[in-house]
């Protein structure tokens, strides 16, 4: 299977990322014109990892974002649906004891309730077949008072910039991918998934529906990417206990 379509069957998406895992980081750097590193830095600052924190990095890929999160002493569980990504990540970060790689489905996470101080996902939520179900899982495994950070492609709010961006996705990116990627067809899917993804306000609404409070977003690179944040209410554990006993 060379690529997935917008129906996003999980096995197709996993197979696609398995095929591009070896050169994934290099291709992203080329396609983003170097901005991928800046977006990753912004997401790391938003997560604000502290020594001793336990952080879940979902759709972690080869662990580049996970490694950045460990630099302050946080322990990071790098989860990804793709076995190929996990394999490459384990090889690249074998000398980092603060990263634990786990193959996992974002819609059925193999973790306990209220386990993580922070949950983060960068450029992966749009590849999940049921993103709202994934958000519910993120909420479940986040500790009361814990934080969620989502970095994802979005919709530039200024019309000319939006038009230029989508022209890049449809006409320029396919040409660049043929030179930079080991699987150009897979990146056709990625461009389509970006174009089909909801805007900033819609995703913010999904976070609120999942139970998060203090929901906010900040545009990066003129809105090509948006950094979304939310906090699980501190009394969420009490509410869960009440639901269980009622």
Automatic annotation (TrEMBL):
Q: Name one GO biological process term.
A: menaquinone biosynthetic process
Biological pathway: Quinol/quinone metabolism; menaquinone biosynthesis; menaquinol from 1,4-dihydroxy-2-naphthoate: step 2/2
- Asked whether the keyword Lipid metabolism is assigned, the reply is no
Q: Identify the domain of life.
A: Bacteria
Instruction: Tell me any Pfam family this protein matches.
Output: Ubie_methyltran
Q: Which NCBIfam families match?
A: MenG_MenH_UbiE (TIGR01934), PRK00216.1-5 (NF001244)
General function of this protein:
Methyltransferase required for the conversion of demethylmenaquinol (DMKH2) to menaquinol (MKH2).
The record's similarity note reads: Belongs to the class I-like SAM-binding methyltransferase superfamily. MenG/UbiE family.
Q: What is this protein called?
A: Demethylmenaquinone methyltransferase
């Amino acid at each position: 299977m060379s690529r997935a379509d917008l129906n996003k069957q999980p096995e197709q998406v996993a197979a696609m990322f398995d095929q591009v895992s070896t050169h994934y980081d290099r291709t992203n750097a080329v396609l983003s014109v170097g901005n991928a590193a800046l977006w990753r830095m912004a997401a790391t600052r938003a997560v604000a990892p502290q020594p001793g924190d336990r952080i879940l990095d979902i759709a972690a890929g080869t662990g580049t974002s996970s490694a950045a999160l460990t630099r302050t002493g946080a322990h990071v569980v790098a989860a990804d649906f793709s076995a190929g990504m996990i394999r490459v990540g384990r090889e690249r970060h074998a000398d980092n004891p603060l990263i634990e790689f786990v193959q996992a489905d974002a819609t059925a996470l193999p973790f306990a309730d209220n386990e993580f101080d922070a949950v983060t996902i960068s450029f992966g939520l749009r590849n999940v077949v049921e993103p709202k179900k994934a958000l519910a899982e993120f909420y479940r495994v986040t500790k009361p008072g814990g934080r969620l950070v989502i970095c994802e492609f979005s919709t530039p709010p200024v019309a000319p910039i939006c038009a230029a961006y989508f022209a890049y996705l449809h006409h320029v990116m396919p040409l660049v991918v043929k030179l930079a990627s080991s699987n150009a067809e897979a990146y056709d899917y990625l461009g389509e998934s970006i174009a089909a993804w909801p805007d900033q306000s819609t995703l913010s609404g999904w976070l609120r529906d999942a139970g998060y409070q203090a929901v906010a977003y900040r545009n990066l690179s003129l809105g090509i990417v948006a950094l979304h944040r939310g906090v699980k209410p501190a009394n969420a554990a009490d509410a869960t206990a009440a639901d269980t006993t009622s």
